[in-house]
Amino acid sequence: MPIRKAGNHARLQNVSTEQTVKSSAGVLRRIILSNGGATARTLTIKDNTTTLNVLNVPASSSAVFEFGVEFATSLKITPSHADVDALVIYG
To answer: What is the pLDDT of residues 32-79, one digit of tens each?
Structure first.
C-alpha cells in the first residue's frame, strides 16, 4: 500500500508518484525518513501545485526534517524513487 493515513500522519512506502497527504489546509510539522535507499533521492513537497520545499536525501541515510510550514490548499509529496519509507506528520 503506497500511503496509509491515520489521525494527523501518513506513511508513504514504495511509491514514486505524487501522493496527496492532506486535501485541505493545515501545517506540515515533520517528515521522518526511515529507509536509507540504495540511491540518493528527493522528496518534493507542495501546497497543491506550489512547491514548498525539495528535500535532498543522500543514499543509505535516514533523517528527520522539522518544518512548521502552513499549506493553504493541500499537502502533496512526490518521492523521486520508490524505495522511500516516510512518515509525514501534519496538523
So the answer is: 988 666 788 889 999 999 999 999 888 877 889 999 999 999 999 999
**Cα 29 from Cα 37, distance rounded (Å):** 23
For residue 7, the tally of other CB atoms under 10 A from its CB is 7
Scan for cell 492532506, then name that residue: 22
The residue behind cell 543522500 is 58
Give the single-character DSSP code of 48.
Answer: T
**Which H helix or E strand runs over 29?**
strand 26-33
Contact 77, 11 (CB under 8 A): no
Contact 77, 55 (CB under 8 A): no
Topology adopted by domain 3-90: Jelly Rolls (2.60.120)
